[in-house]
Specification:
Blueprint: E1 6-13, H1 17-28, E2 33-36, E3 50-52, H2 53-61, H3 65-71, E4 73-74, E5 77-81, E6 87-92, E7 105-107, H4 110-122, E8 127-130, E9 133-140, E10 145-151, E11 157-167, H5 174-178, E12 183-199, E13 209-212, E14 219-223, E15 228-234, H6 247-258, E16 266-281, E17 285-286, E18 289-291, E19 297-298, H7 306-325, H8 336-360, H9 364-378, H10 381-388, E20 419-421, E21 424-425, H11 426-429, E22 435-438, H12 444-452, E23 456-459, H13 465-472, E24 477-480, E25 486-490, H14 493-496
Parallel strand pairs: 1-2, 1-11, 2-8, 5-13, 11-18, 22-23
Antiparallel strand pairs: 3-7, 4-7, 5-6, 9-10, 10-11, 12-15, 12-16, 13-14, 14-15, 16-19, 17-18, 20-21, 22-24, 24-25
Helix pairs in contact: 1-4, 1-7, 7-8
Length: 514
């Protein structure tokens, strides 16, 4: 390694949505970072297309909500169909139900999102984006990390150092390999053809996701934008993407949806093969090095949580990392990242696998059963609510999710982002900081203690949305973390407010702009 190299508080490997979310969050706390990627700019091919309201809420906290709304399209729900596109069941989503302030399902084009995020990063001081860097090794030292990479323009072998490294470098992660972590297979692997089409023609289809429940040719259709559409088809053993390389060869697959749309009105953006896998890494951290996103987990797309899971990783980790960096938290509190995220993402992946198998697995008998059972499910409100509800599971116990509080049913869950005061939502009250929510007025001494610990007290009427949220779980107060997860809840303010961690966060959303 050269005698003198650049040093950064945090180096992020990978400039996809996960890496850029981490960088934007760090910038809000005034922590400098460098993002390294082998690509010079945004990867042009469309990949992720779905985002739920919990992840949208994270974008809102990054100041990107309005921009994302302009490039996204709320999704209506899910429709189960057979191979002839006969409707088996419809699970409509209530467009007015927005517990986190945003539509519960949203369709978008990933390159558009990445352009938004890159544009925001370019306006922030303390964020350095380095393209043309192929990372070959990441190593821990006693009090720092070393990142070794090849400059793809010069071919030179270079290095930088960092206090911490976040590996957001995808399924073939060099960071994961460097720390000796391995993926654990959860027993699912399928080959699918992914087709993206652009057209000005109006297809006049139901505005939601169409899931073809068919053993012979399982498929998914969804409208991404005003002129963008996506189809996914499970490939047979004797097929590859080469068999569907142009518009003429994919047209027979798409024809049930295209109606009378003229061939000349269709533009094939891409047709490519993906292998859907279900995997979770065995170790998410090695001292100062962490893995996030696809470097830590892979999921089939049946519940649309692939990209979102990586964004959740960044949201879960960054505020804890900042707390350690400013001396408020001990280093071992960072172990809560794996303790919380690993069970959470594993649960989501297992759900995706189960839904995928239920919709596409089996044989002729299974198809017949689906045709009989699905219509019944579509008329059961409880089942429909479960299908369309975007709420994710509660986080497991950790340093920041106290086991005792789990009995209240709130700890580990997200605090709803409801309006609390003159149009302000929960996330506007104390962005990036701890929040102490209570339906019981705090004494002057209690309020002073909450403020001394770096948190903000939010008193709400018991009849308010937030008050009823507490009341339904027999609680009068809750400690809400910077990522808006409930750390603890209880029936007594005096017994709860002293459990607030002491952390003097500093948010620099505006002063960080160049």
């Amino acid at each position: 390694m050269p005698e003198s190299v650049d040093h950064h508080p945090v180096v992020i490997i990978g400039s996809g949505p996960t890496g850029m979310t981490a960088a934007l969050l760090l910038a809000q706390y005034g922590i400098s970072c460098s993002i390294m990627d082998r690509w010079e700019g945004v990867y042009p091919q469309p990949r992720a297309v779905h985002m739920d309201d919990e992840v949208y809420r994270i974008l809102g906290g990054l100041g990107l909500a309005e921009e994302f709304a302009a490039i996204s399209r709320p999704a209506r729900g899910l429709q189960l169909v057979d191979r002839r596109l006969t409707t088996l069941a419809v699970f409509d989503r209530d467009p007015d139900r927005r517990p986190h302030g945003f539509p519960q399902a949203n369709m978008f084009d990933q390159p558009d999102l990445e352009h938004l995020m890159r544009s925001r990063l370019s306006s922030l001081a303390g964020v350095h984006v380095a393209g043309g860097c192929t990372v070959v090794d990441v190593a821990n030292r006693r009090d720092h990390c070393v990142v070794t990479y090849l400059d793809t323009r010069s071919g030179e072998r270079c290095a930088v150092t960092a206090d911490y490294v976040l590996g957001c470098d995808g399924a073939n992660s060099v960071v994961r390999a460097s720390i000796g972590s391995r993926m654990r297979d959860l027993g699912f692997e399928q080959r699918w053809l992914v087709i993206d089409i652009a057209t000005e023609a109006e297809l006049d289809l139901w505005e939601g996701v169409h899931q073809v429940c068919d053993t012979e040719r399982a498929a998914t259709y969804m409208r991404i934008g005003d002129t963008r559409y996506r189809w996914e088809f499970r490939l047979r053993d004797n097929e590859t993407a080469d068999d569907f390389s142009d518009l003429d060869s994919v047209r027979p697959l798409l024809s049930p949806w295209l109606g009378t749309a003229d061939r000349d009105a269709l533009h094939l953006i891409r047709s490519t093969e993906y292998t859907f896998r279900a995997r979770v890494v065995d170790r998410w951290r090695d001292r100062r090095i962490f893995v996030l996103g696809d470097a830590a987990h892979l999921t089939p797309p049946f519940i649309g949580q692939g990209m979102g899971a990586g964004v959740r990783d960044a949201m879960n980790l960054v505020w804890k990392l900042v707390g350690v960096m400013i001396g408020s938290f001990a280093d071992d509190t960072l172990d809560s990242y794996e303790a919380e995220r690993k069970p959470h993402v594993t649960s989501s992946i297992r759900l995706a696998v189960a839904i995928g198998r239920a919709m596409t697995g089996g044989g002729a008998i299974t198809d017949a059963v689906r045709k009989t059972v699905a219509p019944v499910l579509g008329h059961l409100p409880m089942i429909g609510a479960q299908v369309t509800d975007s709420a994710s599971p509660r986080l497991s116990p950790s340093y920041f999710v106290t086991r005792k509080a789990l009995s209240r049913g709130l700890a580990g869950s997200l605090c709803p982002n409801v309006v609390v005061d003159r149009g302000r939502r929960v996330d506007d009250v104390a962005p990036g900081c701890f929040l102490f929510v209570s339906t019981t007025p705090l004494t002057r001494e209690q309020n002073t203690e909450v403020v001394r610990r770096g948190a903000t007290a939010l008193e709400v009427p018991q009849s308010s949305e937030l008050g009823m949220w507490l009341h339904r779980r027999r609680a009068v107060a809750a400690i809400v973390r910077p990522d808006r997860t409930v750390m603890a809840a209880g029936r007594s303010v005096p017994s709860l407010h002293t459990r607030l961690p002491s952390c003097a966060y500093r948010i620099v959303r505006s002063s960080g702009d160049r």
